[in-house]
Amino acid sequence: MDESNKEPDTPNMFGVTRRTVIETGATALLLTTLPRAALAAGVDDNEPPALPAKVELQINGQPHSLMLDPRTTLLDALREHLALTGSKKGCDHGQCGACTVLMDGRRINSCLTLAIMHDGQSITTIEGLAAGDNLHPLQAAFVEHDGFQCGYCTSGQICSAAGMLTESRQGMPSYVTEDLTQPAAELTDAEIRERMSGNICRCAAYPNIVAAIKQAAGMPA
Ligand code: FES
Ligand code: FES
């Protein structure tokens, strides 16, 4: 390359040259990407391996004592360590709701929380909703109304609906609740759809899901 065509690397008004900017940027990029790349490869020399931690969970009424890497999500603890595969991993990013379980009755995305954070708490998964051979009313209503096609989202939908009905009975408003002075909003289709909006169904079984929830809530179709 003809050296005479190069722009002179003269400092700007702050005394910074182009070379300084490029070198600083490259260093910052290395510092931010190297640890991730090393972690992905499992060769982070700076971090000692996480020691397994004891986690006590009450799952579907049964006590479980697990030794887990503290970074284990609740979803992975359920699926990989307890073989409770009813809770599904859809996105693993809190976007689809397929992993929804009930924590002390409250619905949560199990992919977004670490198992160790629930030490001593009570978790209900889809496997724990039925009473023996008697389906939970939501399960029965989903079957009756064909509230699914492939079924991948269904366990999350049902657990979420169970939590949602409790929230609604407790008077918790939603984004579309019009009258906040009332003790509990009427569960209109719009209310149900909004309250269930964290649970995505790629098969778009939404009308049947709403119908099933209304039946389980004892509402007219
Ligand atoms: Fe948890 Fe999608 S897998 S929200
Ligand atoms: Fe297939 Fe909901 S039934 S994603």
Topology:
Blueprint: H1 18-40, E1 53-59, E2 62-68, H2 74-81, E3 100-103, E4 106-109, E5 122-124, H3 137-144, H4 154-169, H5 189-195, H6 206-216
Parallel strand pairs: 1-5
Antiparallel strand pairs: 1-2, 3-4, 3-5
Helix pairs in contact: 3-6
This protein binds FE2/S2 (inorganic) cluster (FES) (2 copies).
- Helix/strand order: HEEHEEEHHHH
Radius of gyration equals: 25 Å
Morphology? globular
State the low-pLDDT regions, or none. 29-39
Please report the first level of CATH classification, the CATH class of the largest domain.
Answer: Mainly Alpha
**Helix count, DSSP H or I runs of 4 or more residues:** 6
Largest sheet: 5 strands, mixed
Residue share in β-strands: 5-15%
| Distance, first to last CA | 77 Å
The helix/strand class is: alpha+beta
Strand order of the largest sheet: 2-1-5-3-4
Mean pLDDT: 87
At the fourth CATH level, what is the homologous superfamily of the largest domain? [2Fe-2S]-binding domain
The unique ligands bound to this protein are: FE2/S2 (inorganic) cluster
Q: In the CATH classification, which architecture of the largest domain applies?
A: Orthogonal Bundle
Query: What is the number of domains?
Result: 3
Instruction: Give the number of DSSP strands.
Output: 5
CATH-defined topology of the largest domain:
DNA polymerase, domain 1
Helix content: 25-40%
